[in-house]
Every structure is written in structure tokens, then in C-alpha cells.
Amino acid sequence: MNDVIDRLARLTPAASPTDATAADLRRGHRALSRRRIKRAALGGAALTLVVGGAFGGIALTSDDKVTPITQAADNVRLVDYDGTQVPGYTVAKVPEGFVLQGSDQYVLAVARPDDTSSISDFQDKIVVMLEAPSSPTEGATDTTVNGQPATIVTNSEGTTTLKYAYRDLTVVIQVWESIDLTDKQLVEFAEGIDVTADAKPSHG
After folding, report:
1. β-strands 78-80, 89-91: how paired?
2. pLDDT digits (tens, 9 = 90+) for 30-89
3. Which of 31, 60, 96, 155 could form a disulfide with 77 if both were Cys (CB 3.0 to 4.6 A apart)?
4. 179 near 95, Cβ under 8 Å?
5. Are 106 and 89 in contact (CB under 8 A)?
């Protein structure tokens, strides 16, 4: 036993940590602390991403179920017409941005300036015609044009037709669905129309 104690006594004592070693230990502790903080932050970010993704999915699903709200277009304004008149009718007002495309003895076409279709193609236009008197259209609304009895009706495709008495004939004004005139504006347009001797009824 004494021999063991003697040998232990002769061993060189462990050296105390140097300042450099202590500094290394401090840096190691600080690095470890930074790693722990970073891991915690990343974990929180991942949790936020998962939760946010979940709510984002819910919002997307919710949006898919919502019916889009379509902004209604403003009505076209009627403006004074100061261009060249065409045979058959004289016109006092037109929708803003429209021109008299042309006429023959049966029809006057009011269209956009870039419309190159035939005047007998009524799509996206206002057309004015004469026809023999006919029975009132079912579902039509009664009104007047320049004091004369008139009716307005809109068909299932959205095209609106105004008819009113003119001497022993009927003036027919048809507005395509893409031209957003109110019934009041349509009457105002009609009250600015004068029929000349060049106009002929389309049938009779």
C-alpha cells in the first residue's frame, strides 16, 4: 500500500489550464449556445411554415368556393352626332365611340369605327329599320317615343328591340347585347331619329 502511495506522490501534478485553453473552452461554449439557439429558431420557422401552409391551403380552398364578383360595366353615354348623315335616316345622337356605318333603303347600321362587317350583319350594332305594323311582342314594356306608343323587349340572348309607330308603319330599333344602353337611353336615341323618303319597309 505504501509503495502505491509513494508512486502516486511522485507523479507530476496535472497542469492547470492555460489561458489559451480556457479561451478555447469559452469559445466552444459560446458556439454550442449559438447552435442551440439556431436550432430552436429553425424549429419555430418550420412550425410557422407548416401552420402557414395549412392556413394557406384553407384560404385557397375557400377562395375556390367563392363566386367571383363581376364588376358591372358603366352604361355607354349618348353623345351628339355631328358626322355625315346617310340615306334613309338622320341621326341626332349616337353612343359615344360609335359612327354611322352605312345604310341602304332597308336598314341603317350604327357601329364601332373598326367594324368592317356588312350592314346586314347586326352583331354588336344598333340597327334601325321600317316594317309594317305587327302585333305587340309578348312580354314587351310599354313606353312612348316622341309621344307615339312604343314597346321595348329584351330577348333571351340579351338583344333589345324598341318599336314605335311612324305614320302607317313601325320603326324598329334593335340594340345588340354588347352595347350597354339603358331603356331610357334607347328611347332618347330613338327620339333623335328622323325617317326620310329614302327609307323603305323591310316587308309589308
Report:
1. unpaired
2. 555 555 544 554 454 443 434 344 444 433 334 444 433 333 345 789 999 999 999 999
3. 96
4. yes
5. no
Q: Let me know if residue 202 belongs to a domain.
A: no
Q: Could you please report the per-residue DSSP string of 119-170? A: TT--TTSEEEEEE---PPPTTPEEEEETTEEEEEEE-TTS-EEEEEEETTEE
- pTM of the predicted model over 0.90: no
Domain region containing 173: 78-195
Separation between Cα atoms, residue 27 and residue 23, nearest integer Å? 6
The phi and psi torsions of 142 (rounded to 5 degrees) equal: -80, 140
Burial class for 69, CB neighbours closer than 10 Å (0-12, 13-18, 19+): exposed
CB atoms within 10 A of CB 54: 10
Instruction: Give me the number of domains the chain comprises.
Output: 2
Residues 85 and 57 in one domain: no
All residues at 6 or more sequence positions from 92 whose CB lies less than 8 Å from its CB, including other chains: 80, 81, 191, 192, 193, 194
Distances (CA, A) of 118 to 105, 107, 129, 184, 193: 14, 11, 15, 28, 21
* 13-38: b (≥16 Cβ within 10 Å) or e: eeeeeeeeeeeeeeeeeeeeeeeeee
